[in-house]
């Protein structure tokens, strides 16, 4: 299996999972996706409508992490890494 096919399968898996969950139950999925060693694309997950519902909730930190992984740079990651609790990046 080539890397593009593997990425597509992983993205589809996480998008499908996110599409079935309510916003309050998304945070474990976001942790799983952002810590997956073979997943390198996150914009599709970010575009799932319920994900944006995390904004302004007690779990909005996970939306911020997903945005960082989807659109951030290495410099962004290094500068923001310290503001997130350690469990987010473990």
Could you describe the 3D structure shown?
- There is one protein chain.
- The chain is an all-alpha fold and 90 residues long.
- The chain has helices at residues 3-20, 27-35, 43-46, 49-52, 60-71, 74-80, 86-89.
- It has one domain.
- It is globular and about 35 Å long.
- 19% of the residues are buried.
Keywords for this structure?
90 residues; globular; 64% helix; mainly alpha
As an assembly, this protein is single chain
List how many beta strands DSSP finds.
Answer: 0
Provide the low-confidence segments as ranges. Answer: none
Largest beta-sheet characterization:
none
Rg from alpha-carbon coordinates: 13 Å
Report the order of strands and helices.
HHHHHHH
Helix content: 55-70%
Structural class: mainly alpha
Brief account:
The chain is an all-alpha fold.
Blueprint of the fold:
Blueprint: H1 3-20, H2 27-35, H3 43-46, H4 49-52, H5 60-71, H6 74-80, H7 86-89
Helix pairs in contact: 2-5
């Amino acid at each position: 299996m080539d890397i593009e096919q593997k990425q597509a399968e992983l993205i589809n898996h996480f998008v499908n999972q996110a599409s079935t969950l309510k916003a309050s139950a998304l945070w474990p999925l976001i942790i799983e996706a952002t810590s997956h060693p073979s997943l390198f694309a996150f914009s599709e997950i970010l575009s799932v409508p319920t994900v944006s519902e995390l904004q302004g909730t007690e779990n909005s930190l996970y939306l911020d992490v997903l945005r960082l992984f989807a659109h951030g740079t290495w410099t962004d990651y290094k500068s923001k890494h310290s503001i997130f609790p350690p469990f987010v990046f473990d």
